[in-house]
Fold this sequence. Notes:
This protein folds into three domains: 5-191, Class I glutamine amidotransferase (GATase) domain (Rossmann fold); 200-385, Rossmann fold (3-Layer(aba) Sandwich); 404-499, 2-Layer Sandwich (GMP Synthetase, Chain A, domain 3). It is built from 16 helices and 18 strands. The chain has helices at residues 16-25, 39-44, 83-91, 116-119, 180-191, 200-215, 228-241, 259-267, 280-287, 293-315, 327-332, 350-353, 368-377, 382-385, 405-424, 477-490; strands spanning 5-10, 29-34, 49-52, 78-81, 95-111, 126-139, 145-149, 157-160, 165-168, 220-223, 245-251, 273-278, 320-322, 358-360, 433-447, 450-463, 471-472, 494-499.
Amino acid sequence: MSHQLIIVLDFGGQYNQLIARRVRECGVYCEVKSYKTPIEELKALNPKGIIFTGGPNSVYDEASPHITKDIFDLNIPILGICYGAQLMAYTLGGEVSACQTSEYGKTDTHYDHSSILFGGIHLPETAQSWMSHTDYVSRVPDGFRITAHTENCPAAAFENAEKKLYAVQFHPEVNHTFAGTGMIDSFVKCVCGCIGDWTMAGYAKTAIQNIREKVGDGKVLLALSGGVDSSVAAALLAKAVGSQLTCIFVDHGFMRKNEGDEVEAAFKNSGMQFIRVNAKEQFMKKLRGVSDPETKRKAIGEEFIRVFEQEAKKIGKVDYLVQGTIYPDVIESGLGDAAVIKSHHNVGGLPDYVDFKEIIEPLRMLFKDEVRKLGTELGLDPVLVWRQPFPGPGLAIRIIGEITDEKLEILQDADFIFREEIAKAALDREINQYFAVLTNMRSVGVMGDARTYDYTIALRAVTTNDFMTADFAKIPYEVLAVAAHRIVNEVKNINRIVYDITTKPPATIEWE
Length: 512
Ligand code: XMP
């Protein structure tokens, strides 16, 4: 089944992924493409509409991304956002000028409800929108009318409804814009005529069919980490080609409390061949005497590949290797020159070590929230579907200094209690990542009239959209107090708890 498509044309703005996510939330499939994509190529994709993203430039900069005027003659509806709005105005003969005062943040915006974007949704005549611009459209092109304004921005929205061209200076994709998703919904449904045919149930069905066709009677291998992406990929592959699939779960021993068993329980009876390698002793041996974070990471990464390779060799030649790459990885690995943030190596180096014919990436076009929805659709255990991100080296990089069995046990117990209290307070889906760290510091305490000299546990909890920047979570004191009380009472060798209140940057989320 093919889906109706919206193209998000990327001009290098910071919210590009967010726009795509919002369109998908409206039940409409979209893909992000570079503004450099040839117009013929865009046309061949047969999109129902195109959204121009924001971007950091001014249309008057020579180096700024531009677009051929021909795109406006394709008879495809276009919505320009921020820089995209200015580019539309500029390209079609309007005027863009520098703001006297640049607008940034929540801004009172007056809407004309006769616009199809604003009329059919719950939007007051004046509501807040999120602005972030230093240029503005000072004259709209011929044939356009203004449909929203703010104190400093006379053309906060403008349109040529006949040609289905729409533009907004503000960012409807950002939560701070009141009813912003509704405006995007109006554009994709009422202007572009999308019916909302993008559902995870539909996706699962098509993906299973495609995988079956591709794989035939071939053998498939998947490295299962227990994280959301590889677990959902495994569940999907199991449904499609269960008996031809082997999942190798390398348990390095640095998982959270009970986690290895939870992963095993979720997949043991799914029809696939599930191999759990309990390799803790091997990993511990490699880490003896190691306290430098980078050396730890490197040693774990290398050992992981060695163990995986050993197991894979036992299976013999496989035809397909599955990777849990998701859409943000694809976007961030570089669509155009503006979008390169970081390169991703999802299963660090594995393809070099395993003999296989082709890679399958069944989640390549999905955002994280869609991956979770798909997991739910496939009936995967909620414990796995809602698992927070967990670093490959696991608790090894949350134990500062050398790792010992005793420290590992202390951290697992403390972390378990913290997670339990966060869940009890119903904060587990609100806070993006939360965990305990065993600092290598001991301090003096008093317990039952006796002096103690024990370790300090640091609690870390962050809210973040992209994990590249993060704020510390404002957890109620009562929740912290209960967690701290329980940890010092229930976990041996701990007499002090601190809460990490640094943002990223300057700190990182993990301590090592
Ligand atoms: P930092 O500590 O760099 O972490 O602020 C950002 C996010 O990345 C995760 N992280 C890792 N994930 N392998 C991974 O798969 C790693 O080596 C690794 N190191 C950090 C971290 O948990 C956070 O979500």
